[in-house]
């Protein structure tokens, strides 16, 4: 699956079986996660570059019962391992609810295993919170130096937790609660894992000196009571996909907003000529033959999840793949011999516009589509 996410941000790993199967038996782990870039995975010391970096754990899910935590890096279940052609979601598709399994993961640079019993989607609890219950450190990112390898240099907001614990403009955050902070996505995940009143420990650099400060984290309402309805902090624009995920341009400046949402979805067919251009630009292998019959195609955003649904009237060995804008495979589902109605939830970012490429292959025929997400 994909990197982000994050925020959602993070992103929910889930799986549903096609309609002719009993969807209540579909295995559900219950995490939001991002698929890291190879560079970030290597920086964190992971020898498997295709795992899922947990950003949030769904309440009352199999992941919560198994004590999965934010910043766990899950790279395998039982004998299966994530890889270039097999994401965590694809592995989860091999299981049904009620089945027990062993999760293989990294936690703070150490390999661990956790026993888990898959649940169902209906067990989960919504994680929506209002701003008076949202933890808020009170920082905004500033433009980083090209020499900075990891972490985020920040500006401090008045009356915030960051100000209360003694942080200053220009501090460069490198860790929160013992977890390395490589980028803003990590900081967002670390903060979201807390509740107002929880202790937060921030490690940062100030004029080359290592410092550490702690204190209880405030809510957004405590920090900015006069603006509790809307969060908008102006910051200097910064390059990079992680920054673009959370920062929305406004004129010559950029604003960070917790309210960015995908509000429209556009799906276009891709023919052979366009598929060839996409392959050259992205380094992928869309066939885009356009000779596969797909009926009743729909892609809808339901809360934080995208539901993909379509019907294949013919029978044959079927494979579904989705690539992100960078050309990385983020979703793959090998259905074997299949015909009929297909339905699954795919981990596209609900808070970030972007383009994705979907291809369905069946019995030597294929169809490709470009998915474009627009935000408010």
Annotation keywords:
376 residues, mainly beta, Pdz3 Domain, Immunoglobulin-like, 40% strand, disordered N terminus
Quick take:
By secondary structure, the protein is mainly β. The chain has helices at 38-43, 62-65, 88-92, 161-164, 184-192, 220-223, 241-246, 272-282; strands spanning 12-13, 31-34, 52-57, 73-77, 80-81, 100-107, 110-117, 139-141, 152-156, 172-176, 179-180, 199-206, 209-216, 233-235, 247-250, 253-256, 262-270, 295-302, 305-323, 329-346, 354-362, 365-375. It folds into three domains: 12-123, PDZ domain (Pdz3 Domain), CATH 2.30.42; 131-256, PDZ domain (Pdz3 Domain), CATH 2.30.42.10; 262-375, Macroglobulin (MG2) domain (Immunoglobulin-like, Sandwich).
Q: What portion of the residues fall into strands of 2 or more residues?
A: 35-45%
CATH class of the largest domain: Mainly Beta
Rounded to an integer in angstroms, the radius of gyration calculated over CA atoms is 21 Å
Oligomer: single chain
CATH topology grouping of the largest domain: Pdz3 Domain
The largest sheet is: 7 strands, antiparallel
Count the DSSP helices: 8
Structural class: mainly beta
Helical percent range?
A: 10-25%
Overall pLDDT:
77
Assigned CATH architecture of the largest domain = Roll
Number of strands: 22
* End-to-end Cα distance: 24 Å
Q: Quick one: CATH superfamily of the largest domain?
A: PDZ domain
SSE pattern, N- to C-terminal: EEHEHEEHEEEEHEEHEEHEHEEEHEEEEE
